[in-house]
Write a structure and sequence with these properties.
The structure holds two protein chains of two kinds. Chain A is α+β, with helices and mostly antiparallel strands. Chain A contains 14 helices and twelve strands. Classes of the chains: A alpha+beta, B alpha/beta.
């Protein structure tokens, strides 16, 4: 046992002596590993970041939220089955809420009607386009997934009477009223004046497609006054227990069929959507990106590993006589194997540490320069890349080291 | 501790009575396949070597001299025959068992010194002790003593390229002896040295012999072989003569 420890320390001593003595060669060899580790770990941070981005975006939809809409959140081939579905109306929310109230132990909490429409808004000289106006009721406060940083949401009275008040997304507030409070300012929405009573907290972009911060929430009744009462909308239904989404969806389907007065056997003329649907579509994409990315970057690590293997073969070859001498002095096969394995692993570890440092500072740089890019450096990544370095060293160093350990001492001593 | 040796005197000759049997070789043969040809390097060699002997093995190239040396040094195993080292049959041992024997029982001295170029004299001498599993402190002491014994107590931190040929061979001899082996096996120990340095090394061997070491020198030079007390001559894979010179 103690002998193994001495052989180990001796092996490290030899390895570092060897690396120092062949500094140029070692650096070039390590470079292959450095590039490989940087590529793999950067890919890892990107995948990590994408994953976190996905999860944050999905959280904006609400894990405990069901969306009743005419169209499902997936690509449909048979569009003709959907296009003639009757619209979802304001009154249906009230009917649905009545059913929920009368159902004992209902899994559903509340249904909130939300109508959305893209438009442009003005305040003074500033005009913003690509803004989404959401019309809703006071129940919106029960389903909102973000905080109100400034002011408040509208109350029942304001909602029912269609008072012209609005709550701004953080980007809208910043852009319309830069450097000052948006509260009590007036926003011009399609020629109608709305008074700002609240500002929402920053939420970020949804999968980089659109920003939740570019929205304005107003009382639905105010919208109906100008955009017509037959406006098409969606119902957002909050579920009491997010672990029982499937049962909740079944309950909601039954309730909606009653609201829509559908006959038994008739197909649903509405769709119930939830973030799960997005997740199911996004997960394969995410996995695809991860597999393809890691495979491609893994190739560069593989090239680095070949470099290590090559240099270890060279090292064994040029030290054949030394191996013979060591064997004559009593080195066993294991000792020689260990010596060259440790040499290969040492180069890989040095490469791994340097590569990881490069990745770390790159991530730091990216997060400062381009905060929108999702990169995420984690402790797990550190452990994984160290393990990958060691495994790379062992795998690539094993064949040459094994060959060295099996050398015939007589042949090795005769080698010039 | 053994005191440092006095300056070399190759002409002084003492003869020590032989001790216990160390090496017993019986009917050893060794075949090599070279392509389709089979070479009989050894054709049935019998040899006994005792403690306190100073033996020279001689022969022209192709006589089987090197093969016999590799066999004696447990670097190689015979094709047939019996080889007992200190009563243990080593003829059928596997690699790692032979390594153990080499480490504990045999001290090698090579023609080309075979020192590790990037290690100092001390570490070179410590090497067999590392493989023997001796703790660092004891290792250090033993290596230092061995270097002093060959007259290099003031060169312990020199690297091989900072030492003369004679000094390098002394380091190699210290390395060979540091683990107190049963035999010192030297292969053309003066082959890479000028004649004056060669004489010095042979003088050192003389002193080591006086200290009680068992020495086997493999050489093709009569001048070197003359230092030994017993000369074994090989020809065509067989022992041609085995003479004791007083």
């Amino acid at each position: 046992m103690t002998r193994t420890i001495y052989e180990f320390t001796e092996s490290f001593r030899i390895a570092f002596g060897q690396i120092r003595a062949n500094a140029m060669r070692s650096v070039l060899t390590a470079l292959g590993v450095i590039i490989g580790i940087v590529a793999v770990t950067l890919m890892g941070t990107a995948i990590n970041g994408i994953d976190i981005g996905f999860r944050n975006s999905l959280a904006m939809l609400g894990e405990d939220m069901l969306y009743v809409q005419r169209w499902p959140w997936r690509r449909v081939e048979d569009w003709w089955n959907y296009v003639n579905r009757p619209p979802i109306r304001f009154e249906m929310a009230e009917q649905l809420n009545r059913i929920i109230e009368n159902t004992p132990n209902s899994l559903l909490e509340v249904a909130v009607p939300v109508a959305g429409r893209g438009t442009s808004v003005k305040a003074g000289d500033v005009k913003l386009t690509g803004i989404v106006i959401f019309g809703t009721t006071a129940d919106y406060s029960r389903i909102v997934t973000t905080d109100v940083t400034d002011g408040r949401l509208f109350n029942d009275v304001e909602a029912n009477t269609g008072r012209q008040v609005c709550v701004l997304g953080s980007s809208v507030a910043e852009n319309l009223f830069p450097g000052r409070s948006a509260l009590d300012q007036v926003v011009d929405i399609r020629g109608q004046h709305f008074t700002v009573i609240g500002v929402l907290a920053k939420q970020g972009e949804f999968l980089g497609l659109f920003s939740f911060d570019n929205q304005i929430v107003v009382p639905l009744n105010a919208l109906r006054k100008y955009w017509g009462s037959r406006i098409d909308l969606e119902l957002r239904v909050k579920v009491r227990d997010k672990l029982r989404m499937t049962q909740a969806e079944e309950e909601l389907t039954g309730a909606m069929r009653r609201v829509r007065r559908q006959l038994p056997g008739e197909r649903d003329n509405f769709s119930i959507n939830q973030q799960q649907a997005f997740k199911e579509q996004l997960d394969p994409v995410k996995t695809g990106i991860a597999v393809a990315g890691l495979f491609i970057t893994g190739l560069s690590l593989f090239v680095g590993a070949i470099g290590i293997m090559n240099i270890t073969f060279v090292s064994v070859k040029e030290r054949t006589k030394e191996i013979g001498t060591r064997k004559a002095l009593g080195a066993r096969r294991r000792t020689i194997l260990l010596q060259f394995l440790i040499e290969a692993v040492s180069i890989c570890l040095i490469g791994g540490v340097v590569g990881l440092a490069i990745t770390f500072f790159t991530c730091l740089g990216i997060s400062v320069a381009l905060p929108a890019l999702p990169v995420e450096f984690s402790a797990g990544l550190m452990v994984i890349s160290m393990v990958v370095s060691i495994v790379t060293g062992i795998v690539s160093g094993f064949a040459p080291a094994w060959g060295a350990s099996r050398l015939d001492p007589v042949e090795a001593l005769r080698y010039e | 501790m053994i005191p440092p040796v006095a300056p070399a005197d190759a002409r002084r000759r003492t003869v020590r009575p032989p001790g216990a049997l160390v090496i017993k070789i019986e009917g050893v043969t060794k075949l090599y396949k070279m392509g389709s040809e089979t070479i009989h390097a050894l054709r049935g060699v019998n040899l006994e070597i005792y403690r306190n002997e100073y033996l020279a093995i001689m022969g022209p190239s192709g006589s089987g001299k090197s093969t016999l040396m590799n066999m004696l040094g447990c670097l190689d195993t015979p094709t047939a025959g019996r080889y007992d080292f200190n009563g243990k049959n080593v003829a059928h041992m596997v690699d790692d068992e032979l390594a153990e024997i080499r480490n504990r029982e045999i001290g090698f001295v090579f023609q080309t010194f075979n020192l590790l170029p990037r290690s100092d004299a001390l570490h070179n001498v410590e090497l067999p002790l590392i493989y023997a599993g001796i703790p660092a402190h004891a290792r250090h002491e033993k290596a230092l003593a061995a270097l002093r014994n060959v007259g290099l107590g003031d060169r312990v931190h020199h690297r091989p390229n900072e030492l003369s040929g004679g000094q390098r061979q002394r380091v190699a001899i210290a390395r060979a002896l540091v683990n107190h082996p049963s035999i010192l096996l030297a292969d053309e120990p003066t082959g890479n040295l000028d004649s004056k340095t060669g004489e010095e090394i042979m003088g050192l061997f003389e002193q080591l012999y006086d200290q009680g070491h068992t020495i086997i020198v493999v050489t093709h030079e009569e001048d070197i072989a003359r230092h030994a007390r017993r000369i074994v001559r090989l020809r065509d894979g067989l022992i041609e003569s085995d003479t004791t010179v007083a």
